[in-house]
Branched-chain amino acid transport system ATP-binding protein (Methylobacterium aerolatum), 248 residues
Amino acid sequence: APGEDLLRVEALEAIYGGGIRALSGVDLTVREGEIVALAGSNGAGKTTLLRAIANLLTATGGRITAGRVAYAGRDVARTRTDVLVRNGLVSVLEGRHCFRSLTVEENLIAGGLGRGSGRAELQADLQRVYALFPRLAQKRSLPAGLVSGGEQQMTAIGRALMGHPRLLVLDEPSMGLAPLVTDEIYRILGALNRSDGLTLLVAEQNVALALRHAHRCVVLETGRSILEGLAADLRTRDDIRQVYLGLG
Ligand code: ATP
């Protein structure tokens, strides 16, 4: 139900092979219906945290050493990624990751296959993605490797939407994109949140951007969550403005 905890991360710690401690105490809650931004500079541990949530940490040589990840009330630290996806926890990590030689449309369809949807349902879901991202409809027959960076990001998000997420997790959707394209993507994510109640957890290095688009913001620093609050409150705090927004 709206307002209930959908994702809870508690006292999470993680290391990579060779003993690199990437997370050393992260607490984070995402409630149903919220947009939560995960802010923090390069190397703060954002990607590691999102990998841990999607259970993709071991695939990159890391592992959880302490703490808990719960989704929809269940401990999911050992739940396979495809099972998480089928239960609505869908992640777009490492930037865009499209299948570059497949067309935009084939990439989108790939996102719907895990659900075992029939042709009619896949078609309806495709039309919904094209209505959200009209540029993708125009480029549907092109190899994803040949469309712009923004369109690749839209393809990756569209592919995730084909899986009918309840919680969509995105890693720096603005990375390498022009401000206008970033705004377009955030506008569409905001509309999905308002109209469909889609819950979002978005890692974002650009704190100003995060505070503009999220309801709440959690700041990571060297593997720890050091600050959490409503975006509207953080935007007006002098210390935040000085440290993170570069404003006097
Ligand atoms: P970025 O914006 O660069 O992605 P981030 O906040 O997402 O930064 P992480 O990528 O999670 O930070 O990195 C946290 C720490 O873990 C860093 O010290 C990084 O070098 C290290 N790290 C990340 N991935 C790996 C890996 N696969 N193997 C070893 N160390 C890693």
Observations:
- The chain has a mean pLDDT of 92.
- Residues 16, 20, 22, 40, 42-48, 60-61, 205 surround adenosine-5'-triphosphate (CB under 6 Å).
- The CA atoms of residues 27 and 46 lie 12 Å apart.
